Amino acid sequence: MLAERAPKPLSGKLMTDMNTSGASAATAQGPLAVYRQRIAAGDIKSDPDQARVVERLDQLWRELATMRARAPQAASPASRSGGFLAGLARKLMSQPAQPTQDRLRGLYIVGRVGRGKTMVMDLFFSCAPVRLKERIHFLRFMQDVHQKLHALKAANPGMADPIPPLAKAIAARVQLLCFDEFQVNDIADAMILGRLFEALFADGVVIVATSNTEPSQLFQNRPGADAFKPFIAIIRREMDTIELDSPRDYRRGREQDRQTWLVPADAQAHATLDRIFVHQACGANLQPVTLEFIGRSFEVEQAAGPVCRFDFNSLCGKPLGPNDYLALARRFPVVVIDNIPCMGQDEANLARRFITLIDALYDNGNLLFASAAATPDKLFTEGEGSDAFARTASRLAEMGSESWLEHGAQAAQAAHSLARA
């Protein structure tokens, strides 16, 4: 039985706890007690490696319980009169940063795919005894950061550096930030993260993150990797790294649907995807759609209601990035992809974009139907980043399970009904 994932919010927004009416039962008991209760109830199986990480999270839960919660910062007259962004840009006064030794250390949970990292972090998040807390997939967080930076620059053309006011805005609304799937693949993200996180830690924000990559290996072997090393030093200084390496991949072994991943990508597979596309369109007409976001546009040539369709090269063979794929995932609950090839060293960029695409679809709970040259675990076995592709193969296995399809079908139907209303 899987050490379960928390339900994904269909809105794609931050999972936020702002309840001030009192501590919940989980908040009062702590993550270790709740973890043991779930084992006793048969909801999850006992896993010594998970239990070890939960014990460390329980320590942080106790430390947070003794930390005085910060009250939300009241809007200043400047922000009320000139709009939030303009007011924030003018109001850079803040409380003095806490000394490093007085700050709580966050936690960086690293391990192979499917070992329960997300489950234990979500359990901790539900128990965390603070009012201002947010849990978000790291890909979404960075998209939100880019959007806010774009808005700050647009509202304040003369602003030299929008990162400090953005950090103040984040620190004003959260005391605890929990990131799922912490990974850095984009040079634009890498250039922002060091100063942003330095400012967040200085303002006392506690960060817990899950990742498949050791801190020392983040963004390595990439152009600009040397400039990213100070951020790695910040992570080591402010967060404890703990490994979760259970011997079992909990995403594997679920009942699979044979219509989601079609091998090989031949004429029969193409005809099957034709039928799936028509069925998922629910009678909507085929028409192109243009997605507009952060000053960019993304052309979707084949779309009908809640479903879109692409040839692999038109989706991953172009210079698209996380924001493009997130916009696609949010607009279309169902995605159909034809002709996914096997990839090697020469196709490392294709594989990297495909990884980013699947991250966006997975986090958003999308349905995926595809034809491919091979099963997911045989698509990219050699080349830079092929080791990281194991996470993608594991996610694709989960996205082909009956339970995923049932949940995704309900979400797609709800989105289609809303669009027609």
Strand content: 5-15%
- Quickly give the CATH architecture of the largest domain: 3-Layer(aba) Sandwich
Report the uncertain regions: 1-23, 69-99
CATH third-tier fold name of the largest domain: Rossmann fold
Give the overall shape, derived from the CA principal axes: globular
**Count of DSSP-assigned helices:** 16
**CATH superfamily membership of the largest domain:** P-loop containing nucleotide triphosphate hydrolases
The helix/strand class is alpha/beta
Strand order of the largest sheet: 1-3-4-5-2-6
Number of domains: 2
- Helical content band: 40-55%
Q: What is the terminal-to-terminal distance? A: 39 Å
> Which radius of gyration do the C-alpha atoms yield?
22 Å
Largest sheet features:
6 strands, mixed
Protein name: Cell division protein ZapE
Pfam family, one: AFG1_ATPase
Keywords: ATP-binding, Cell cycle, Cell division, Nucleotide-binding
GO molecular function: ATP binding; ATP hydrolysis activity
Can you describe what's shown?
- The chain is of the alpha/beta class and 421 residues long.
- The chain folds into two domains: 30-66 and 103-243, Rossmann fold, CATH 3.40.50.300; 261-420, no CATH class.
- The protein has helices spanning 25-29, 31-40, 48-65, 77-82, 84-90, 117-127, 138-155, 163-173, 187-202, 225-238, 267-281, 312-316, 322-331, 348-364, 389-399, 402-420, and strands at residues 15-17, 106-110, 133-137, 176-180, 206-211, 239-243, 261-262, 289-293, 296-300, 302-304, 307-311, 334-340, 367-372.
- Helix 9 runs parallel beside helix 10, helix 13 (322-331) runs parallel beside helix 14 (348-364) and helix 14 (348-364) packs across helix 15.
- The model is unreliable at 1-23 and 69-99 (pLDDT under 50).
